[in-house]
């Protein structure tokens, strides 16, 4: 995949701007606060329907404007030139057009423009809490597996309603017997999510182990033999062990769930462990090793997307070069410089790998006055 053009209207700090891109390495360079991250965020938003850094979509709309608009045009090696357009209205939410056709569901974006986004927060993936690692799996599954985003959405709806009911039962406003109604969909959707996450992790593990080996061999010391293990949390605090193996099995925990007002079973409590030479890297690896593993997971993600979708994702590296020491920085650039497209941000150009011909785009971008086609109105 090669993104050719990004058009912004009222997105974050941009009133209007057009970014023209080429294949290969592109650096968006400029001082802090100039809008480098905003550009990668816009690409992420158009490709996935979400921002990588906020869950509140309206943050993306330029202050004082009623709506934001992003258009990304890219070349797909099979389908040719494609276009995604996202409009985001303060009151009416998001609207999507793909190749000029209005789409009702964001899930229609699945697999269209695969991206991998790597930012300083991604480097903390190993030492961060379980939510970050669940998010890593869910984001990847959302791009790879048709229907996964919808499945997650359905599960979250069931979970929210079940939690609401638990609190009503606790307050004496609902009968405890109603709970069983939610156990079946909770269990069914929850198991489906776990199964997909597990399968993904099984496929990712050898790629991540190989990448970790390369990161180590590339001079970014600290990697050993890497294993990934999905951890399904059980309500009694155990991991695995099958305390709950059917929807009926949830009944044993109803009393405690009512007392605590929250659901104690399910993939919203899961995690995955990274074992480095048999030791849990979440707890035992040095910070340098943890960052090397996060890098390995990202490189594995790029390969997995290629393997599953048959196309290389666009790699977005937001401000990570300054976070890495010289050896890791060199390794990362060498590892990714042959991808069809890598877009980086930094305040200063790095030392580029030999033989590459990166393009540096200085920011701020010049304003661009092209009239928009009549959408979103
Ligand atoms: N909704 C918004 N409306 C207007 N301006 C915004 C909005 N959201 C963010 N900004 C502005 O965007 C700028 C930040 O842009 P961005 O995060 O892309 O900078 P950056 O070049 O990546 O900086 P750094 O190098 O420090 O990471 C800030 O000046 C901020 O005030």
Automatic annotation (TrEMBL):
InterPro entries: AAA+_ATPase, DNA-binding_RecF, DNA-binding_RecF_CS, P-loop_NTPase, RecF/RecN/SMC_N, RecF_2. It comes from the Bacteria. Keywords: ATP-binding, Cytoplasm, DNA damage, DNA repair, DNA replication, DNA-binding, Nucleotide-binding, SOS response. It is found in: Cytoplasm. Residues 348-377 are annotated as: Disordered. One of its GO terms (biological process) is double-strand break repair. One of its GO terms (molecular function) is ATP binding. GO terms for cellular component: cytoplasm. The keyword Cytoplasm applies. ATP binds at residues 30-37. Residues 362-377 have a biased composition (Low complexity). It holds the Pfam family SMC_N. Residues 22-367 form the AAA+ ATPase domain. Its main location: cytoplasm. The RecF protein is involved in DNA metabolism; it is required for DNA replication and normal SOS inducibility. RecF binds preferentially to single-stranded, linear DNA. It also seems to bind ATP. Belongs to the RecF family. This is DNA replication and repair protein RecF. It comes from Thermaerobacter subterraneus DSM 13965. The gene is recF.
């Amino acid at each position: 995949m090669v993104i050719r053009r990004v058009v912004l209207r009222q997105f974050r700090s941009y009133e209007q701007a057009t970014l023209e891109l080429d294949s290969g390495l592109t650096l968006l360079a400029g001082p802090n606060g100039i809008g480098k991250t905003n550009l990668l965020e816009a690409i992420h938003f158009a490709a996935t329907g979400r921002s990588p850094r906020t869950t509140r979509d309206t943050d993306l709309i330029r202050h004082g404007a009623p709506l934001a608009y992003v258009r990304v045009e890219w070349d797909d090696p099979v389908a040719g030139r494609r276009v995604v357009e996202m409009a985001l209205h303060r009151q009416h939410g998001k609207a999507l057009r793909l190749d000029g056709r209005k789409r009702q569901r964001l899930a229609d974006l699945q697999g269209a423009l695969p991206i991998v986004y790597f930012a300083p927060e991604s480097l903390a993936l190993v030492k961060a809490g379980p939510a970050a690692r669940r998010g890593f799996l869910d984001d990847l599954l959302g791009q790879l597996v048709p229907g996964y985003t919808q499945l997650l959405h359905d599960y979250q709806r069931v979970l929210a309603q079940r939690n609401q009911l638990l609190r009503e039962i606790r307050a004496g406003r609902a009968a405890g017997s109603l709970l069983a109604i939610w156990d079946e969909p909770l269990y069914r959707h929850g198991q489906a999510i776990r199964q997909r996450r597990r399968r993904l992790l099984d496929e990712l593990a050898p790629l991540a182990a190989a990448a970790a080996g390369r990161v180590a061999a590339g001079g970014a010391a600290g990697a050993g033999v890497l294993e990934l293990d999905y951890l399904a949390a059980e309500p009694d605090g155990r991991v695995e062990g099958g305390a709950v193996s059917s929807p009926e099995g949830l009944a044993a925990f109803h009393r405690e769930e009512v007392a605590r007002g929250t659901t104690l079973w399910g993939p919203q409590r899961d995690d995955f462990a990274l074992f480095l030479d048999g030791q849990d890297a979440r707890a035992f690896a040095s910070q340098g090793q943890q960052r090397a593993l996060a890098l390995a997971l990202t490189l594995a993600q790029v390969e997995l997307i290629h393997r599953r979708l048959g196309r290389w994702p666009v790699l977005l590296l937001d401000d990570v070069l300054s976070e890495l020491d010289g050896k890791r920085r060199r390794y990362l650039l060498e590892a990714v410089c042959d991808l069809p497209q890598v877009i980086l941000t930094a305040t200063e150009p790095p030392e580029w790998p030999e033989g590459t011909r990166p393009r540096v785009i200085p920011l701020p971008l010049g304003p661009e006055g092209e009239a928009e086609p009549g959408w979103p109105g």
